[in-house]
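Dear colleagues,

I hope this message finds you well. In preparation for our joint manuscript, I am sending the ABC transporter permease (Actinomadura darangshiensis) sequence together with its predicted structure, so that both groups work from identical material. I would be grateful if you could confirm receipt.
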Amino acid sequence: MNATIAMITFRAMLGRKRALLLLALPLLLLVLAIGLKATGNDDLDISATVQQQFGLATLLPLLALIAGTGVIGPEIDDGQIMYVLTKPIPREVIVLTKLAVAIVLTTAFAVVPTLLAGLILTGTTAQLTPAFALGALVGGIAYSAVFVALAVASRNAVTIGLLYALVWETLLGSFAPGAKSASIQQWSLSVIDALTGASPVKSTVDLPLAIALLVVVTLAGTFLAAFRLRTLAVASAD
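The corresponding structure tokens are as follows:
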């Protein structure tokens, strides 16, 4: 971790325009939860649906995409990253710092609102809300690593990330069992399923496999980002 890089990245990410992007979806989720609670639509099934479909399947990947690509992508696009690369800072430290910032932002703007929405709707009944919070946290870490790696590897990271989150996980996942199982969302849901007895929550992936895949994807994304960053440095020197 590098405190200076982290501070500069936080400042850039929490500027007015990006802050509005980060706040819009969480506020919508909380308004939805309050509205459902006020109208009496707050049973366990509805709470599970809101936390899974809106929190885990929509809010989490989109916020992780904004955070993961935003912490480093713009610096690569405008060339400012070369200023950082000229400093005597190991590339691994730069990547880990950027990833840590992305995880903190994803936690603050996706995991915490999902937790609050669950508390508003059903509290801690059947441990559903804590389970979703923990599942969203581990999923957010994996998403962040993947999207940071994409931002370093491609200028089309946002497009690729949207295709993965919205087409592969959401659209194809609804029709193709194979695509559904090969998704961070399902691996996170497996963690949630293991932590709650609520019947609406079911995963298609066994817990040991899901945990292993989450760890592998997180480590692979981090390694790929660090490796690609070294390549950027060599290319600039040439």
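For the figure legend, we might mention the following. The chain has one domain: 3-237. The chain has a mean pLDDT of 89.

With kind regards,
E.M.
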